[in-house]
Every structure is written in C-alpha cells, then in structure tokens.
Write a structure and sequence with these properties.
With about 280 residues, the protein is mainly β. The protein has four helices and 20 strands. Strand 2 (about 40-45) and strand 3 form a beta hairpin. Residues about 275-280 have low confidence and may be disordered.
Length: about 280
C-alpha cells in the first residue's frame, strides 16, 4: 500500500512538472520578401528545434529569462532575450535579414551547383523573364536571337557556327528545364512549343561543349531554362500588348489607304497564373 502511494506521488509530481512547462512558438520569415523560412535552427533554454515547411516552431521551456537564437545559412543570426512566466504561451514573429547580397547573377548550369556568373569558367549568357514579356515572346526560340553567337535555323539551335541538328543523331544543343532534358524521343530535336516559358525565372545558355555533364546532345552547348520557385501567396499576371502596322514599301500592299482608313492595329492578352506553395 505504501509503495502504491509512493508511485502515485511520484506520478503527480512528474505530471505537475510537465504541466508547469511554458511554451514558446513562433513564425520565421524573410524580412525582405516576407516569405516563410523552413529549416531555421532555433535554440532556447538549452533546447533546439528546426522550423517546419511553413516556418513555424514550438518549444517547451521552464519559466524565467532565456536567450533565444535563430540561425540559417545566408541570413544574419537573430538573438533576443525573452522573459516567460510559468504555464504561459509566448508567440513570436521573427524576421531574418540576408547576411550578404549577391551582386552577380547566380547560375547552376555550368557545374550543376549554384555559383556566381563571374566565377563560371565557360562562356555563358543569362536571359531574364522580363525580356520575354517586354518583347511579347510566345515561344522560347523567338528570343534566342538576343544571345550573341546563337542562331535559329528551322527551329534548331546553332551555337557559334556548330551543327544544330544532325539526322540520325539529333540535336547537338541540349535543351533543359530545371536540369531535365527536353529533347523529343522520335527525332531527337528540340520542341520549343513544349517549353513552359510562362513559369520561367531565367534562361542560361552555355556556349561550348558540355557533353561531360549533359551527354552527347550537348556537344555544341546547353540551354537550361530555370523555373520560378513556389511562393506562399498565389499570383496571377495579366500580360497585354498592342501595336500598329507600318506602311509597306509597295503602295499596293497598303490596302487600308485605298479604303481611306488608318493603319491597322493588333493586340493580345493572356492570363499567366504563377505557382504557389503547397504543404507536402
């Protein structure tokens, strides 16, 4: 009987001790763009945890004053002293600052890992998505002429005079989307109408042989289109453009003048939904 009473008292003390634990929870975001930051290491009262995919964390600690620290590679360390009472719940919103700002374009195609464009040893060009929108580009091959040394012949890419397509062997320039080949299985050529340019972040063009990394189809170069990263809040863009046709050199082709009308105009628009973050 005494033994049972002793066990009951111990269980009561342990349950009271666990019940007396205070709770600190919070949400960590990027200060510049307000995006959630997963994988942030949070240390508090000799306990540590890592934020989940939504940037949330939770720790049970004893009451009193404690130093809270949060750290993530690429961001400045965050430190704050908190004072929490017994059986209390404290909710924090923590913004992290970038520790350094990249002054150069970051590419991945040259070595399959992130590096600054100025550190790449091969000849590479980068095209941003804004250029496609400014020129009302509907298909990726229409913008390739903006890259020095790159030419399009019959929808096949030629880099620095190299053979763009060889019958029986296929394309000599590798087309990639986030590192995945986009070469057709039947003819081994590039189908530009398959490339989802509406979700393009940037296009990286390697002008030179890269067959060691990407295989024989990259004998003359590589075109790697990188897509945008998912964000917390979904977005939808409406892209519109309009223009006016000029006068042709031959007067007989200017049919609108014969009808005493003004120069014809053209216009177009389309919705461009952007990707959003989802819980995995």
């Amino acid at each position: 009987m005494i033994k049972r009473i002793f066990i009951f008292i111990c269980q009561f003390i342990l349950s009271f001790t666990s019940f007396a634990q205070s709770v600190v929870k919070g949400h960590i975001i990027d200060k510049s763009n307000k995006e959630t930051l997963p994988g942030v290491v949070v240390i508090l009262a000799d306990k540590n945890t890592v934020t989940d995919v939504n940037g949330n964390f939770l720790l049970q600690i004893p009451d009193g004053k404690h130093a809270l620290k949060a750290s993530l590679i690429g961001y400045s360390n965050f430190s704050k002293t908190i004072d929490i009472k017994a059986n209390d719940t404290l909710t924090l919103a923590i913004p992290l600052d970038l520790s350094n700002k990249a002054l150069d374009e970051v590419v991945v195609s040259a070595g399959k890992y992130e590096q600054k464009l100025s550190e790449v040893t091969v000849s590479m060009e980068v095209i941003k998505a804004d250029l496609l929108q400014n020129k009302a580009i509907a298909q990726l091959d229409q913008i390739m002429g903006q890259v020095p040394g790159v030419y399009i012949t019959d929808q096949q890419v030629s880099i620095r005079g190299g053979s763009g397509f060889t019958y029986g062997a296929g394309s000599r320039v590798m087309m990639l989307v986030d590192g995945m080949p986009m070469i057709s299985a039947d003819a081994g050529d590039i189908k530009f109408n398959y490339v989802p340019i509406e979700n393009m972040a940037q296009m990286e063009v390697i002008k030179g042989a890269s067959s060691v990394l990407y295989g024989s189809s990259a004998l003359n170069g590589v075109i790697n289109m990188r897509t945008k990263f998912p964000k917390d809040v979904p977005e939808t863009e409406v892209i519109t453009y309009t223009g006016i046709y000029g006068n042709a050199d031959r007067a007989s082709l200017n049919w609108w003048k014969q009808q005493k009308k003004s120069n014809p105009m053209f216009e177009s628009w389309h919705l461009q939904p952007k990707v959003m973050n989802t819980d995995f």
